[in-house]
Amino acid sequence: MKVTEHIEKAKGETLFSFEIIPPIKGRSIQELYDNIDPLMEFNPPFVDVTTSREEYVYIDRDGLLDKKLTRMRPGTVGICASIKHKYEVDTIPHVLCGGFTKEETEYLLVDCHYLGIDNVMALRGDAMKDEKYFEPTPGGHTYASDLVTQIRNLNTGQYLHEVIETDNCSDFCIGVAGYPEKHMEAPSMQTDLKWLKKKVDLGAHYIVSQMFFDNQKFFDFVKAAREMGIDVPIIPGIKPIAVKRHLHLLPQVFRIDLPQDLIDAVEKCRDNKAVRQVGIEWAIAQSKELKEAGVPVLHYYSMGKSDNIREIARAVF
Fold first, then answer.
1. Cα(107)–Cα(112) distance, rounded to whole angstroms?
2. Predicted confidence band at 69 (pLDDT cuts at 50, 70, 90)?
3. 5, 8, 19, 54: which is the annotated catalytic residue?
4. Helix H segments across 62-123?
5. Is the pTM value of this prediction over 0.85?
6. Has 104 been annotated as catalytic?
7. Dihedrals φ, ψ of 174, to 5°?
8. DSSP code of 185?
């Protein structure tokens, strides 16, 4: 079932969903299941599975360093299929511009269609670790809007190099990212919203927000989006702070602001166990206010760990 259909079926009730990351290459998928199992009591209608970019590694060959490309967390589509089968929930693979050619993207989408995966999340992706700015993969897309167009075209039988007349077209529900505090590369909030509207106009069906810690920024973002003419569901993304270094890491990586009350509470913590509890309590308060405001889904960035998400969900759902 599509995300938009789940939302419509809920008839105004706020749904619970979460996002996971594939295990590092060589690790067991059972570790992933162990963290998903405790969250299934909250009946998530869908689970997102991230896709990691490729990265360079240096291999010592007789004293010479050989630079090779690798993916440390492969298997997004396979994990989606496995979770879909094991838990009977819809899964949403993240599809990136960075690291994939248009042909590779087409093959991935065909695989998803064969597996009965109805939803995909279309993202540009981040720059590689050794790049200051995002550089498009040769033969790949530059913007998420281009990726949305490719997915929309495939839904009508328009493949990259041919049009196929068929009664078995894909019918993907397309999600895209939104930024309550604007994308780090956007010169202004208005410009960022203009690009978001373009993604929707090209075929995106719903929006999931980047993490934020001040609900008013999300409410202002939704209001501005609606005034811009964006009328698709907008889902807030929530991440509980878990360790003290998040105070510096999250603003640096995601270009977001943290409320001073949250900063003060974390700085008073003696250890990360206390920080984790502060993060849980803050996320519970955020979630309750957002739920009361009638958001369609509360989407949690679990980063592969479920204990804090479970505590939050127990207090909210």
1. 9
2. confident
3. 19
4. 76-87, 102-114
5. yes
6. no
7. -105, 120
8. T
